[in-house]
Amino acid sequence: MTTAYFLILALLTVSWFLVGRQRASSIAGADPASLHSLPSYHGLFLAALICLPMILIFIVGAPLAERYIEARAFSGLDPATISDELGRSAVLRDIQSVLAGNYAGTATPELTTAASAYSSAASITSWLLLIAGIAAALVAAMFGFRLIGPEFRARNSVERLVKYILLACSAIAVLTTVGIVFSVVFETIQFFSKVNPIDFLFGLQWSPQTAIRADQVGSSGAFGIVPLVTGTLLITVIAIAVAGPLGLFAAIYMAEYASPRTRSIVKPILEILAGIPTVVLGFFAALTVAPFIRGSGESIGLSVSSESALAAGLVMGMMIIPFVSSLSDDVINAVPQSLRDGSYAMGATKSETIKKVILPAALPGIVSAFMLAISRAVGETMIVVMAAGLAANLTFNPLEAVTTFTVQIKTILVGDQEFDSAKTLSAFALGFVLFFFTLVLNFIALQIVKRYREQYD
Amino acid sequence: MTDIASTNDIPVTDTPRDALVKKRYRAERRFKFYGIAAIVLTALFLSVVLLDVLFKGIPAFSEYRLDLKVVADQALLDPQKTGDRTTLLAGNYDKIIRDALAAQFPDVTTRADRRALNGLLSSGAADDFRRMVSNNPSLVGQELTVPVLLSDDADQFLKGYQTNEIVLKGTGTLTQTLNGDAYALRSSGDDFGKAFQEIQAFLFQRLDRLHTEIARLEKTLQGMEGDAAESLRGQVDTYKAEAETLNARISDANTAIELDDKLPSLLVNVNGGTIKATQISPAGVDGTKLITPKSAEPASPGSWSILTLVTPESNRRVQDQAATWLEQLKASGTIERGFATRFFTSGDSREPELAGIRGALIGTLWTLAVTLILCLPLGVGAAIYLEEFAPKNRLTEVIEININNLAAVPSIVFGLLGLAMFLNFFDLPRSAPLVGGLVLALLVMPTIIIASRAALRSVPPSIKEAALGVGASHQQAIFHHVLPLAMPGIMTGTIIGMAHALGETAPLLMIGMVAFIVDIPGGITDASTVLPVQIYLWSDLPEVAFQAKTAAAILVLLVFLFVMNAAAIMLRRRFERRW
Questions:
Q1: What sections of the protein cross the membrane (chain B) (predicted)?
Q2: Do A283 and B554 count as a contact with CB atoms less than 8 A apart?
Q3: Across the interface, do A167 and B389 touch by the CB < 8 Å criterion?
Q4: DSSP conformation class of A151
């Protein structure tokens, strides 16, 4: 049905494009310059007039049609079976399998009548939609056809439309943000109607499993995010402790010491590292690094959890080295040469120049590079899902298992969920906190970089 | 730059100037070394990751198969002689294969033994046979050689992942004495002396380990109280008792040692049979038969051998009996190692030896197709608007800040968006490439917009001005002249964005692409999974064989990424123009 509709749409569009172009050329006759717009713009104008109404009618009509079809199908059924969303979708599935002829068992008479009502309503509405669409399109096209003439400014109209389309494209980015905010905010508000925000932000226990029976063990339904915050913090601190020095020193070397040849070798290495999917690094962390740390810890008499924060943090640190180094590299390169020259003229060595002139000058940029790296580490999912634990321990011992925001979101939302339980909603609240935190961090970092660039431009 | 003043306070002391200069140069060298060390460490990490995956993954590309001679028995496959495909597909191929395998081992008579023997085969062992016959019904009734897939445990054993093997060729003449069911083997050479020493060394090692463990536990026990201490003390006592018995067993260099399942297995291959040693002394072994020797004649030097499976039987998934069968099959040349085409042609499975990545690959392809179709036009459109048409006002600024921030939003948040918007609000199908593609398109769009804007900006204004000068409209100048010249840059950005999308896992977990899906998806609304998610799913499974499969799937993913990035670099090299 949908396919047929859009096939006809495409056919009409192409044919009216040709008609419009032909019409414009024939009006112009031997003197093409007599037209204001090129013939193809007239064609495009007609094509747009076909497309827009048909798409509009489909967007408005299709959901209406679906609602009508469902209403017709449900009209003969027992109201009890279709009282809730679950029952309705079950009945719809049954009807569809009856129509497709693969219904398991024999259909009840009610179901058969519902199925026939469904199919007749479906065919009526689909025909109606098609006819309405074609009629609207043809009316619009006839109207446009009469406008075609030497004076008609088809190009201007088409270009105005194109501009709106381009604007719509860039509006998608804003819509995405709005979509993200809406999808997390609504659920978060719902969550806070069940759980006190104070308990959420300052509670020391995280155990989202809500008890179904009163005497159930291990289902306290505690939603305090402090253990998650400390867990995320612990892993992030380890990651930055690894990536900070390594990334910064790599950037300094690349910007100040390396020959172009060395740069051309080292840069791709960092790019490859940045391009490795995190699921691969997670596999490496869980199956190679974690057992190694556990083994070496035990050989010196330490008890190490098999899902230690250290393993996840180390590998995550390695993952964000390229972020730190490429951003720091940029800001170090942006420090004006005159500062370096001034320092050398005073007799300073290269390292003294770097330590006392370049780094202080580049500090704001480096700070923002670190902030971006932190936000990357906080939002990283796969490495911690695979290598860090699920247990929400409130600890700062890197050898123990901790859990993070992303791990909890993933754990709660993968698999079946009921959408009104506090447990499911809590994942959205966590997502909200995560989104808000990274957004603020990024925003500040980008502003710092922007101001810093302006300073030296 | 007020900080510059601080460079002046290089300490001027009474030490000779040379010493100070030397010190400063040392600091210089040290500083440079830190930079090199950082880069070397990073490169080292990268190579360790890649090599680790490579070594873990390579074995999964090959598999062990049996080449079994079977008769495609009419009575079992097509008793009515209909010759049609459905009947042939439903035939009892398993029985034929199992009978053919059992025929190779006349010793196997009991039900338990037969079950163990069948355990060597994969549950999909008959698939190739079935496919052969159903595609070519004329094969019914003929004698064929069919490839039969082994189980993952057998495969792992043959690849050498279950135990190390040591083979000692017999140097003396071996005599067998049968005493009821027990065999007594004696060699005229010192073969068993060597084996005995090995076992003794193994026992000493174990004793050593026990002693260190006891010492460690006793150290922790000091100052411990309560139940935990009590249970630990119990542990220490068991270890001590074990050490005591071990001591007794190896106290005398010449006493026979009982071989239990916590010691390496000694298997003696003689006259086409295999005897498993239950007791060893320097003089010889006593044991039971795993495969009956064809004759009881004494075996000449070199014609018999002692096979040691170093990992104790209790720590192995393939027991001695099965190992013996596999060794015999290998010796008879029935087992061959081949390229595991199945890995690329079949969907997911619970059986490691049957699982493949075809479903995930096709799912990835559908998902990326949706992503590309959506994000390329949208991203380029947005870039053109922002670069060429956008007025300098508040709205434009908001859009720009937005795009920059979106590029840094954690990917899992996009998963939340997909779940709440596309699945719950718009009611799109779960686990479908359609939704996955939508989410990934939103995820990579900022990357593409930023890259496209840079590409558009790098086209010199003179091009546009020339077009405007000869009377083109603003849009004609852009679409006919600027955009084509910016295309290589846009394509490079798009490929890099797609490579990013290819490796993305977290948002796809949120929208249900983690389901266990065996079928190959046929469209964008079918339930499917993608390669990175498949990697995640397999990495979670307990079977060791899946570890290799995971690494192999990672290798495939990395190859795809490598190809995409190489294409981007090629494109950049080929079309990049300096104006």
A1: 33-55, 360-386, 406-426, 438-456, 476-496, 551-571
A2: yes
A3: yes
A4: T
ipTM > 0.85?
Answer: yes
Q: What would the mean pLDDT of A258-278 be, rounded to a whole number?
A: 88
Cβ-proximal residues to A199 (8 Å cutoff; 6+ apart), any chain:
A223, A224
| Residues in chain A closer than 8 A to B555 (CB atoms) | none
Contact A315, B49 (CB under 8 A): no
- What chain A residue is nearest to B445 in terms of C-alpha separation? A173
Nearest-CA neighbor of B163 among B57, B326, B317, B287?
Answer: B317
Give start and end residues of each alpha helix (H) in B82-190. Answer: 85-89, 93-103, 111-118, 127-135, 152-158
Strands B182-187 and B273-281: unpaired
Domain spans, chain B: 60-157, 165-316, 358-575
Evaluate whether A169 touches B382 at the Cβ level (below 8 Å). Answer: yes
Q: Do B42 and A270 touch (CB under 8 A)?
A: yes
From CA A256, how far away is CA B413, in angstroms rounded?
Answer: 38
Flag the least confident range among A225-239, B4-18, B173-187, B319-333: B4-18
Predicted pLDDT of residue A417: 64
Rounded Cα gap, residues A63 and A320, in angstroms: 46
- DSSP lists the bridge partners of residue A207 as A222
| Residues B243-298: tens digit of each pLDDT | 887 777 776 666 777 777 777 888 888 777 888 888 787 777 888 888 887 777 77
| Token digits of residue A193 | 């109607």
Report the sign of the C-alpha dihedral through residues B424, B425, B429, B433, in that order.
negative
Helix (H) / strand (E) containing A234: helix A226-252
For residue B145, give Cα distances in angstroms to B30, B79, B302, B469: 68, 22, 33, 78
Q: Within A253-336, where are the H helices? A: 260-275, 278-284, 290-299, 309-334
3-state secondary structure B472-522: CCHHHHHHHHHHHHHHHHHHHHHHHHHHHHHHCCHHHHHCCCCCCCCCCCC
Top CATH class, B358-575: mainly alpha
Question: A435 and B410: CB-CB below 8 Å?
Answer: yes
Give the closest of A169, A286, A428 to B382, CB-based. A169
B2 — pLDDT class (breaks 50, 70, 90): very low
Mind listing the pLDDT tens digit for each residue in B50-82?
999 999 888 888 888 888 888 877 777 777 777
- Beta-bridge partner residues of B258: B279
Closest CB to B410 among A250, A342, A379: A379
d(CA A257, CA A270): 17
Cα–Cα dist A73/A77, whole Å: 8
Neighbours of B333 (CB within 10 A): 8
Name the β-bridge partners of B149.
Answer: B65
Domain borders along chain A are 2-152, 206-456
Q: Say if domain A206-456 classifies as CATH 1.10.3720.10.
A: yes
